[in-house]
Design a protein that fits this description.
The chain is of the alpha/beta class. The chain has one domain: 3-Layer(aba) Sandwich (Rossmann fold). Helices cover 35% and strands 17% of the residues. It is built from 10 helices and 10 strands. The protein has helices at residues 61-66, 93-107, 120-130, 154-165, 171-177, 185-192, 202-206, 220-232, 251-260, 275-292; strands at 5-6, 23-28, 31-38, 43-47, 70-74, 84-85, 112-117, 135-141, 237-242, 267-269. α2 packs across α3 (120-130). The longest helix is centred in the last third of the chain and has 18 residues, at 275-292.
Length: 296
Amino acid sequence: MTTPAVRTPEEHFEGLPGFAFRPSYREALGLRLAHLDEGAGPPVLFLHGEPTWSFLWRKVLPPVLDAGFRCVVPDLPGFGRSDKPVDSRWYTFDRHAEAVASLLADLDLRDATLVAHDWGGPIGLRLAVEQPQRFGRLVLMDSGVFTGQQRMSDSWLRFRDYVARTEDLPVGWLVRRGCLHDPGDEVAAAYDAPFPEPAAKAGAKAFPGLIPLTPDAPGAETGRRTLAGLRERPRPTLILWGEADNALPVVLADLLSAVLEVERPPTRLAAGHYLQEDQGPEVGRLIADWLTGEPT
């Protein structure tokens, strides 16, 4: 069954700054979904979150590719070059997990490194527990597992309320506000590029409301099961965090590290929530050095 969705014209993605990667397409969940598949070697899966897309990783990928890894970078349904269902009810935690699981199966990724930011964390970590053969290592950035028992910051609550009441969400402006240093007009326009009309932003508007805020909210039990699974089957884990992240304060990096019993202390960077914009090459270097066993 085809899902009513917006498909962004390809010309919207022409001439984006620093982003010459060629997309691949596949069919899943009644949608055309996009991903990047670059390089050769052990696989690394990069998962974006709200309200970004694979463009987020453009400065992170080169050091990882140069270190000899295969980088797989999907656009989640509703984002980037992927089709964008116009019904906000379509967007659920389960559907996003299903979309990424279908990519893992189609590419038969095994023993991959998960690199997850924002909503990429809950989605990717859930799959790491449900399909443990797919993931051997974890890199977590300004993200976590939501169990309905966590306390969200006042800044995040204001963000959620703003998204809920704003019909035509200014995506590029939101990314700019989440950076420590303004990335500029061209970059902001690149984050706006996937959304040719307000109806295309249903996914960007839906994501904040999917975070469970009470123990009985949808997704909370899945979060608790994910957390228990991560603790039962620990993996080598690297945590990177933006020190100037207001929505997900850096103290959460230490809490996440303690809960997951990560041996290596979190690495704090002079960055906001979108540390890939503020410190992209350094993020890529840190990941590449960690994966190759080089001192960082």
